[in-house]
Amino acid sequence: MKKFFKFIKQDKITYWGFILSSIFLLGSFALIAVFYKQLPPFLPLYNKMPWGYARIGKKIELFIYGAIAMLFYSINFISAFHIYKKAALLARFICVTTLFICFFVFVFTIQIILLMK
Question: Is 44 helix (H, G, I), strand (E, B) or coil?
Answer without folding.
Answer: strand
